[in-house]
């Protein structure tokens, strides 16, 4: 199982490559337009595969999937063809009598679900919020989820925006939106993690999600990750 430091290195390396690529595209745009460079980039973006993961923060199967399996999204160029969405709402529900969120593993899971919703909202860049959530879930696997705030310092990120989001109630509102989204899943989720590729759930074969992503991709820029599937 990869350590938080390893995945942080992977993600940061990817961000650096993206920066180099974007800088090259910016400086070369005037000479590349005649070659269809901008059109090609747009086409790749439009052909990306939607990968959605519905989960609970303290669900053991979810934590293991996020840390051990989902990290493959950042291997061998797969992220270039994937729109990854993490939805921290699985078996939770809203008590209609008092409008309070109830989670399968109790208040601690509800709190971390809300914190992760805040992380996704505050840092919409998937490279950044995945790194934070990876760190949270790594701690959860080790039974140290109460130390989740340590992830911010290890990643060099400020925790104040996340704490403000949680304490203000904005995180709860985000979770309520996720609740509505999860309620409209068809078919409804029957276990967690519930992994959906281009709106199609892949059921108990979720650990093999890369194969489904690669089969769903219709573009020509096939990443190395797909050449072995």
What does this structure look like?
This protein is an alpha+beta fold. It has a single domain (4-228), classed as Glutaredoxin (3-Layer(aba) Sandwich), CATH 3.40.30.10. The chain has helices at residues 4-32, 37-46, 60-69, 107-122, 126-141, 150-155, 160-168, 170-183, 209-216; strands at residues 49-54, 82-87, 93-95, 100-102, 194-197, 200-201. The chain has a four-stranded mixed β-sheet with strand order 2-1-5-6, with helices on one face. Helix 4 (107-122) packs antiparallel against helix 5 (126-141). The longest helix has 29 residues, at 4-32. The protein is globular. The two termini are 22 Å apart. This is Gamma-interferon-inducible lysosomal thiol reductase-like.
């Amino acid at each position: 199982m990869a350590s938080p430091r390893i995945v942080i290195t992977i993600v940061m390396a990817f961000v650096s490559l993206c920066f180099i690529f974007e800088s090259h595209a910016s400086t070369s745009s005037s000479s590349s337009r005649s070659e269809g460079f901008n059109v090609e980039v747009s086409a790749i973006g439009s052909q990306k595969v939607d990968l959605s993961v519905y989960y609970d923060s303290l669900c053991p199967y979810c934590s293991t999937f996020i840390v051990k399996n989902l990290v493959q999204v950042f291997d061998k160029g797969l992220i270039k063809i994937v729109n990854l969405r993490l939805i921290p709402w699985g078996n939770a529900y809203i008590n209609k009598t008092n409008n309070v969120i109830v989670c399968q593993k109790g208040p601690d899971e509800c709190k971390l679900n809300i914190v992760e919703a805040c992380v996704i909202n505050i840092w919409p860049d998937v490279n950044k919020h995945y790194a934070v959530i990876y760190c949270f879930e790594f701690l959860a696997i080790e039974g140290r989820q109460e130390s989740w705030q340590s992830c911010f310092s290890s990643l060099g990120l400020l925790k104040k925006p996340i704490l403000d989001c949680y304490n203000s109630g904005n995180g709860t509102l985000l979770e309520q939106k996720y609740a509505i989204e999860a309620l409209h899943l068809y078919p409804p989720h029957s276990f967690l993690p519930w992994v959906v590729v281009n709106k199609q759930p892949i059921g108990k074969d979720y650990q093999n999600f890369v194969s489904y992503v690669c089969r769903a991709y219709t573009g020509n820029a096939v990443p190395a990750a797909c050449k072995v599937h």
